[in-house]
Amino acid sequence: MKAILIGFMGSGKTTIGKLLAEKLNLPHVDLDDQITAAAGIAITDIFSQHGENYFRQLEHEVLLNAISQEGILSTGGGTPTQSENLTALKKAEIPVILLEAAADTILERVSGDIERPLVNSLDRDGLTSLKEKRQPKYQACADLTIKTDGSSPEKIVTQILNYLNRQTD
Ligand code: S3P
């Protein structure tokens, strides 16, 4: 991978990942899509039929496989919160970009999304406190943090490209 995007649900990892990959002429790999393909069922069904622990195990296996592929990786919001994933992300020495957005922005974007099991099971306060709890883990593996509120995908991708170019200078 050339870069890995992390951040809470609704922070824009997939949108930005796709655009970044397009600009770099690289494949875009979405971890949630790979998990869905590996399980053969939707993420909400993995949670409801097998539970979150099973999902996390699958997520870990799929992450290890994805890290060695070519492209830009958009992770799931919970990926860096598992210590073994955090270790794998750090060990890979691939630039990790954290996309940040205010809790209100995030809640606005994800509310009512039936494809996100945690959105279905938590209320606004629950999601806000989950976001706060995860923040230190996100920061522990981020090489670059970008605040996305009030920005545009083009601007965010330019910031990332500038950062990646500086790394290769
Ligand atoms: C999760 C986020 C989701 C998906 C799963 C669990 C989480 O990905 O991996 O529903 O724990 O925050 P997105 O961040 O792409 O919504």
From TrEMBL:
It catalyses: shikimate + ATP = 3-phosphoshikimate + ADP + H(+). Its EC number is 2.7.1.71. GO terms for molecular function: ATP binding; magnesium ion binding; shikimate kinase activity. GO terms for cellular component: cytosol. The keyword Cytoplasm applies. Pathway: Metabolic intermediate biosynthesis; chorismate biosynthesis; chorismate from D-erythrose 4-phosphate and phosphoenolpyruvate: step 5/7. GO terms for biological process: amino acid biosynthetic process; aromatic amino acid family biosynthetic process; chorismate biosynthetic process. Keywords: Amino-acid biosynthesis, Aromatic amino acid biosynthesis, ATP-binding, Cytoplasm, Kinase, Magnesium, Metal-binding, Nucleotide-binding, Transferase. Substrate binds at D32, R56, G77, R134. It holds the Pfam family SKI. Coiled coil: none annotated. It is found in: Cytoplasm. Binds 1 Mg(2+) ion per subunit. Transmembrane segments: none annotated. Mg(2+) binds at T14. Its cofactor is Mg(2+). ATP binds at G10, S11, G12, K13, T14, T15, R116. Catalyzes the specific phosphorylation of the 3-hydroxyl group of shikimic acid using ATP as a cosubstrate. Belongs to the shikimate kinase family. Monomer. This is Shikimate kinase. The gene is aroK.
